[in-house]
Design a protein that fits this description.
InterPro entries: HAD-like_sf (IPR036412), HAD_sf (IPR023214). It comes from Waltera intestinalis. The chain is an alpha/beta fold and 255 residues long. It has 9 helices and 14 strands. The chain folds into 2 domains: 143 residues, 3-Layer(aba) Sandwich (Rossmann fold), CATH 3.40.50; 99 residues, Hypothetical Protein, Haloacid Dehalogenase-like Hydrolase, Chain: A, domain 2 (2-Layer Sandwich), CATH 3.30.1240.10.
């Protein structure tokens, strides 16, 4: 395999839900991949600040696909950004807030700040836990920059709300992004990976990617070597023939 780039989702894939820090051999693997000319890309709905902290020991070996493809960082510089039309972002935020039965809290993502409309239901604690830059707001009109992603945090879980929001906001790549999150953005992880390959001159056939949820599908569908986690939903395990319990198990074979 002539792998040039390895992209991995974070929460539920490389970092198990509830864990705060990466453990085990992954840092050694990322360094070893870099020494072989293979770049590593954390591909996440998280913002750059959070990802940069997690991967600090190997940040110089990485390119960061942040906000589900809305922002891309390399060498501490934003090298690509895909903002949403302001009117659309505000309309989605209003809909997610008003039609979540008082159970939803909203996060609007800028280039490297999370703007929070919160109800005291746990989103703020989660944002502090993952280490995002954040600012609490009352209305999206307060946001002084481009919006790249709009998300709803549902503290009782997404099951009762996926059918309500995902089809309605299909135009904004609405997707379940974890047990408690639904995301919308005009970018997606697939668009982000395509942008990286265009910037760096890589072929998508030479990209390996790992994911565990529906917001990873756009990435897994376009790369030459897609892997789904063993713990992913049944339809995703059926869609992708290559399964693994952990990315590290597969990466050993590249070293």
């Amino acid at each position: 395999m002539g792998i040039r780039l390895v992209c991995s989702d974070l929460d539920g894939t490389l970092l198990q839900y509830g864990k705060k820090e990466l453990e085990g051999e992954i840092f050694d693997q990322i360094r070893a991949l870099h020494n072989k000319g293979i770049l590593f890309c954390p591909a996440s709905g998280r913002q750059y600040t959070s990802l940069r902290k997690l991967f600090a020991p190997v940040a110089d070996c990485c390119i960061f696909l942040c906000e589900n493809g809305g922002v891309i960082y390399k060498d501490e510089l934003c090298i690509a950004k895909n903002p949403m039309p302001r009117e659309l972002a505000e309309e989605i935020a209003e809909d997610l807030w008003n039609r979540s039965d008082g159970q939803g809290e909203i996060m609007l993502s800028g280039q490297n700040t999370a703007y929070l409309m919160e109800r005291g239901l746990g989103m703020l604690d989660r944002i502090k836990f993952i280490g995002n830059n954040y600012q609490v707001i009352q209305d999206p009109s307060e946001i002084p920059e481009d919006i790249v992603k709009v998300s709803v945090y549902l503290h009782e879980g997404v099951a009762a709300y996926a059918d309500r929001f995902v089809p309605r906001w299909e135009q904004a790549n609405c997707a379940v992004a974890g047990p408690y999150w639904i995301d919308t953005t005009l970018a997606n992880k697939g668009i982000g990976v395509q942008s990286i390959c265009k910037i760096l001159g890589f072929d998508l056939a030479d990209v390996m990617a790992f994911g565990d949820n529906y917001n990873d599908v756009s990435m897994l569908d376009i790369v030459g070597h897609p892997y789904i986690m063993d713990g992913a939903a049944g339809p995703l395990r059926e869609k992708y023939p290559q399964h693994t319990p952990r990315p590290e198990e597969v990466l050993r074979n590249l070293l």
